[in-house]
């Protein structure tokens, strides 16, 4: 089941993306490029448009202007399942798992990778049975990789919060993604769980060479893991650079800590 | 969905074999009345499994199930009969099922887009439309009086009272006995295929759609395609049930395929437990057999009038409806996951009690919703 592509993943390029909800401009001409194999962090205060940006990237939200391209493919007009089939996987800020066991959830992640249709599954054709068995084995591998091995057959509803977060991560990995979008992967976790998840993310990069886009509020984690950081505030890019550059950017400090100017109050 | 894939397989063949043998016995011991109850239950179970796939697994409500049952039943009666093309009955039966699927497919622009309860309202139109067509298209449907259904024939063997005469182990095999085995075969086919669907890739996609459309789409599930497909598959099971019903009734009439029938099927899957094949079957047997049994034993039941009498008491069919109405209320209150969930909890409860001696073996807490942890006695 080793269908991972050995070549470097394509770059994810976001150009001038604008999203408006009625009167509110959630994203205003946002641009950034996640270089192949890099970890690109997207940070900003609450309501800055990070999750909207993820929704655009995964096809859940159509931008009013701008484009998203993965290598040579434009993602902007594609339906979510087509984007997933291109190898873009994501996790959600608030856990979105389905009922059933960890195995069921991970096998959902294998959906785009498998072919068995209604007729083949209904008649339990050997091809469908074989395919299912192979994908189950790969799902188990991924569960081991993310530290869920011993929970593989447990109902998701019985797992701890941290473990459920990890189920989402594992499910996204089951897509064998080339680009992984992580929406606050450690939010609500305790220190030990955070460290563990950070390790998993680091291992993933090292082993699979994924391009990762990370939205996270835990600055320590961002600064340790990220190669590049884009800072959003009220839907606009206010800074861009390496973690160290961003950390000293006056605009960023203002957005995070506030300076008490009228502009701030007006907003 | 939560069934383990391999593990349980070791003991299962033995249990399935035992069940199959037990199900083959009734024609040798029971009279036609009981066989007919069984036959109707099997047909209903096939239809209920189809609806369970749509409503329980994919989370789509359908009030149009009666329409697809009618397409199957009338499709067979027309294709195999006179007036009509007079096709060989087996081919007519297969075509009738495909016809039901095609009818579901025609509805897929709606079924693929409309969600949950809104689809229920949309499919409501189908029932009234279908009923109207059945009443007015006389040349095909026979109008108000319906039309008779030609018996199924398979390589010179007719599923009818004679032709050829058949005596097995001293029991004369009439139409009911023969149809019993046909029904059993179709029912087994339904279990086999529905199980494969539920545990396979399509079933997981549909369950994901039900639990979170967003997560499903992001994981690569084509939402509209799978919604339509679930509707088509459910229609085909309804068509198959319709064919078997037609064969069992030997005559199809429009009034049978009314909205009440659609509601009956919903009652079956709610009582049985949404999304489970075994639950749908149990619900189907309950809802189908109850009115027939009450009609038969009306004279011995309190508060129930014999059929045909105008004593002012409740007729057996209405009484049965009251009873399963009550059953639905009880199920919703005390066992929201239906008879299937109830059976599972009782099983777990027993399993937890038994291994008290091996103290070293800690029993893992069984997965059960906290609100419905205590097992309940069976619903009436």
From TrEMBL, chain A:
CDD domains, A to Z: ABC_Mj1267_LivG_branched (cd03219)
GO terms, molecular function: ATP binding; ATP hydrolysis activity
Keyword Mitochondrion set for record: no
Domain ABC transporter per the UniProt entry, residue ranges: 12-259
Membrane-spanning segments: none
SMART domains on file: AAA
GO cellular component: plasma membrane
Keyword vocabulary terms for this entry: ATP-binding, Nucleotide-binding, Transport
UniProt superkingdom: Bacteria
Name of this protein: Branched-chain amino acid transport system ATP-binding protein
Species annotation: Streptomyces griseomycini
TrEMBL record, chain B:
Location, primary (coarse class): membrane
Origin superkingdom: Bacteria
InterPro entries: ABC_transp_permease, LivM-like
Protein name, UniProt field: Branched-chain amino acid transport system permease protein
Membrane topology classification: Multi-pass membrane protein
GO terms of molecular function: branched-chain amino acid transmembrane transporter activity
Pfam entry (one): BPD_transp_2
Region (Disordered): 350-380
Subcellular location: Cell membrane
GO CC entries: plasma membrane
Positions of transmembrane segments: 12-29, 35-54, 61-79, 91-110, 117-134, 179-198, 229-253, 265-293
């Amino acid at each position: 089941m080793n269908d991972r592509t050995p070549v470097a993943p394509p770059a994810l390029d976001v150009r001038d993306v604008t999203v408006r909800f009625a009167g509110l401009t959630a994203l205003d001409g946002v641009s950034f490029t996640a270089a192949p194999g890099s970890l690109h962090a997207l940070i900003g205060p609450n309501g800055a448009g990070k999750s909207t940006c993820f929704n655009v990237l995964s096809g859940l939200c159509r931008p009013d202007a701008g484009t998203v391209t993965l290598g040579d493919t434009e993602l902007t007009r594609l339906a979510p399942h087509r984007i997933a089939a291109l190898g873009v996987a994501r996790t959600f800020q608030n856990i979105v798992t389905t009922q059933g066991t960890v195995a069921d959830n991970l096998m959902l992640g294998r959906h785009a990778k498998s072919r068995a249709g209604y007729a083949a599954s209904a008649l339990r054709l050997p091809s469908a049975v074989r395919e299912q068995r192979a994908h189950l084995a790969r799902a188990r591998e991924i569960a081991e990789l993310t530290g869920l091995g011993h929970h593989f057959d447990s109902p998701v509803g019985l797992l701890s919060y941290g473990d459920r977060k990890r189920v989402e991560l594992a499910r996204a990995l089951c897509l064998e993604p080339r680009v992984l979008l992580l929406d606050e992967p450690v939010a609500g976790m305790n220190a030990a769980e955070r460290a563990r998840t950070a390790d998993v993310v680091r291992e993933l990069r090292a082993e699979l060479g994924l391009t990762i886009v990370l939205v996270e509020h835990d600055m320590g984690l961002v600064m340790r893991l990220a190669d590049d950081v884009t800072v959003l505030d009220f839907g606009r890019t206010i800074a861009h650079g390496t973690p160290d550059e961003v950390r000293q950017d006056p605009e960023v400090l203002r957005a995070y800590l506030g300076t008490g100017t009228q502009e701030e109050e007006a907003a | 969905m939560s069934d383990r894939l391999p593990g349980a397989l070791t003991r299962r063949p033995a249990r399935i074999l035992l069940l199959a043998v037990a199900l083959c016995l009734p024609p040798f011991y029971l009279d036609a009345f009981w066989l007919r109850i069984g036959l109707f239950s099997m047909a209903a179970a096939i239809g209920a499994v189809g609806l369970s796939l749509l409503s329980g697994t994919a989370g789509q409500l359908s009030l149009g199930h009666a329409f697809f049952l009618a397409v199957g039943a009338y499709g067979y009666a027309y294709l195999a009969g006179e007036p009509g093309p007079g096709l060989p009955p087996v081919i007519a039966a297969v075509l009738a099922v495909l016809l039901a699927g095609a009818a579901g497919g025609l509805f897929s622009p709606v079924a693929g887009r409309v969600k949950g309860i809104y689809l229920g309202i949309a499919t409501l139109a189908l029932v009234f439309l279908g009923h109207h067509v059945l009443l007015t298209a006389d040349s095909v449907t026979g109008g108000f009086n319906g039309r008779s259904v030609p018996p199924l024939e398979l390589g010179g063997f007719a599923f009818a009272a004679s032709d050829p005469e058949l005596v097995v182990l001293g029991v004369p095999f009439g139409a009911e006995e023969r149809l019993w085995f046909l029904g059993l075969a179709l029912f087994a086919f339904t279990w086999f295929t529905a199980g494969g669907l539920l545990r396979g890739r399509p079933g997981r996609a549909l369950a994901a759609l039900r639990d979170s459309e967003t997560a499903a789409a992001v994981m690569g599930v084509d939402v509209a395609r799978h919604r339509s497909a679930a509707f088509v598959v459910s229609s085909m099971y309804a068509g198959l049930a319709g064919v078997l019903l037609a064969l069992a009734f030997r005559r199809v009439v429009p009034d049978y395929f009314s909205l009440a029938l659609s509601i009956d099927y919903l009652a079956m899957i709610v009582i049985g437990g949404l999304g489970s094949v075994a639950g749908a079957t149990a619900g189907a047997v309950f809802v189908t057999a109850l009115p027939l049994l009450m009609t038969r034993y009306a004279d011995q039941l309190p508060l129930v009038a014999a059929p045909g009498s105008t004593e002012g008491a409740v007729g057996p069919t209405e009484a049965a409806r009251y009873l399963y109405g009550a059953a639905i209320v009880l199920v919703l209150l005390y066992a929201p996951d239906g008879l299937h969930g109830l059976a599972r909890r009782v099983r777990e409860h027993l399993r937890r009690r038994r291994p008290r001696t091996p103290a070293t073996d800690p029993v893992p807490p069984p997965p059960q919703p906290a609100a419905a942890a205590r097992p309940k006695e069976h619903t009436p």
